[in-house]
Amino acid sequence: MRVAVIGAGSWGTTIACLAAADADVILWARRAELADRINADHENPDYLAGFPLPEAVAAASRIDEALDGADLVMVAVPSHGYRTVLDRARGLIHPSTPIVSLTKGIETGTCLRMSQVTLEVLEGRDPDAVGVLSGPNLAPEIMKGQPAAAVIAMGDRTAARRIQALFSSPRLRVYTNPDVIGVEVAGATKNVMAIAAGASTGLGFGMNSMAALVTRGLAEMTRLGIAMGGEALTFGGLAGVGDLIATCGSPRSRNNRVGIQLGRGRRIDEILAETNMVAEGVKTTRAVLDLASRYGVEMPISEAVGRILYEGATVGGALVDLMTRETKAEAHGILP
């Protein structure tokens, strides 16, 4: 099998390394100098410094070269650049080739999930051959060989099982799930919650606060996912609560780190200016709020994050607003 991984950030590079155990892999890097460094040194100095890459991972800066003859395409570019990159791939991917998004975001403006963007840009493809790989997958931990799990969601179950077999190993256990909508919504919304969790940590709060936030955050994620056509059970799995635990509890999470700095009183523009990595939740929060409005879903934590990111609200002020909302019954936990 020949696998093309589009995007040489930390997660794209990690996926390329995992696939290289059983496939020929081409990793596309936007910058030629990064592709050259990867090929020369077998290391990604910009995103995974200190981790040696398998000899079988080759890099290319020409997208036509990366996609040539690919039997599987994995797209690991940020949501705000996803459409532009796929535009460059028009006519370069065979119509029957499965395409899997590794991106945990929602396109701002259109509010489309990444699989929807794929189908819109690459017209005429079988929707069942477009999917998503998600879960609690912090790249450095996987590169260290620590055990982890992920879920591949795709309508074509035969293709999903092939991808499952390709990436399953003693360090990564992969499950299948036909619920593409739920897995994508979970992956995007948990980044919003990770910013809130980081802010809680930045304020110096402990596990009581974190547990309340994660639990009610999961309720928000699930309500939106169900409204959009996803399955409730998906949010109790790896793409939902699993990823939520990892990103809300680990300082390795980019979104969590952003939240920590916000909780310490720093401005979002200052925080983003100091990193070369993308915190998807910063842009995705706006799209999530637009979707919540469109589907009539109440998402108070997401709204609080939005006020902090886009309206200059203080973390302390947003917290007071959350804690003094009208009281209500918990009902059925994660459901409305």
In short:
With 336 residues, this protein is of the alpha/beta class.
Description:
With 336 residues, the chain is of the alpha/beta class. Helix content is 50%, strand content 11%. The protein folds into 2 domains: 2-178, NAD(P)-binding Rossmann-like Domain (Rossmann fold, 3-Layer(aba) Sandwich), CATH 3.40.50.720; 182-323, N-(1-d-carboxylethyl)-l-norvaline Dehydrogenase, domain 2, CATH 1.10.1040.10. The protein has an 8-stranded mixed sheet, with helices on both faces. Helix 8 runs parallel beside helix 10, helix 13 (280-295) packs across helix 14 and helix 14 (300-310) runs antiparallel to helix 15 (315-323). It is globular, with a radius of gyration of 19 Å. The chain starts with a strand and ends in a 13-residue tail after the last helix. The model has no long low-confidence stretch (mean pLDDT 94).
